[in-house]
Amino acid sequence: MTPVALDLIPNALALQPEAFEALLSRPGFGLRGALAIVFLAGLSTSFGQSVVLFANHVSPRRFVASLLVQALLFVLTFLAWSATVWVAALVLLDRPAPFAAAAAAIGLAYAPQLFNFLVLTPYLGNGVGAALSVWTLLATLVALGVAFDLSRSETLIVAIIGWLAAQALQRTVGRPVTRLGRRLRHAVAGRKLDPVEPPGLGPR
After folding, report:
1. What are the residue ranges spanned by the domains of the chain?
2. Helices and strands (DSSP H and E) totals, the chain
3. pLDDT tens-digit readout, 160-187
4. Which residues are CB-neighbours of 171 under 8 A, at least 6 positions away?
5. Residues sharing a CB contact under 8 Å with residue 67, sequence separation 6 or more, in sequence order
């Protein structure tokens, strides 16, 4: 991971606006570093959900490939979410900002998701997953406020509208993409992955 974002992770985890301000003051907005954080968060999330791969006896080579593919799909989902928020800020509040800046800030806000592998913890996985989701949401609100120079109420408006738009897209034009992603995961795993009923549902 590039140092341009790595050194800011502790402050981002502490929900300090200065971390996001520092990121956006650097050349290229630290976008590559932020995307690296999102990719690693995707790997962590994939590993946290890898019980399905274990239960389906996926070979080690395909296991690793499956984790990488799921991490890449995680990044694509992140970019789609960033785009909806960016459009919401532009259209609703007339707050133009470079998309790269918005994506970089939101990517840094995904730092709590680096701990998603902990959802595998017996009995505590559900609670850990919920806590990480809330933590990421709070960090994202801080990131949006900095990236678009928004007040707290404006930040909430952009986040809510962006989330609603993302949900609408996911349930309409996103359905073929979701099916394609599912088929890709099955293809990489070398078999149709049978779902596993965990003790409880994790985040997402």
Report:
1. 8-189
2. 10, 0
3. 888 888 778 777 766 676 677 677 766 7
4. none
5. 43, 46, 47, 50, 53
**Would you state the structure tokens that stand for residue 130, as one six-digit string?**
């919920």
* CA–CA distance, 141 with 147 (Å, rounded to integer): 10
- Give DSSP secondary structure letters for 86-101: HHHHHHHH-----HHH
Answer for the pair 89, 148: CB distance below 8 angstroms, yes or no. yes
What is the gyration radius of the CA atoms in the chain, in angstroms? Answer: 17
Half-sphere exposure of 61 (CA within 13 A, CB side): 1
pTM above 0.70?
yes
Pairwise CA distance, residues 51 & 95, whole Å: 43
With vertex at residue 155, the alpha carbon angle to CA 151 and CA 159, rounded to the nearest 5 degrees, is 175
Q: Mind listing the pLDDT tens digit for each residue in 113-149?
A: 999 988 887 777 788 989 999 999 999 999 999 999 9
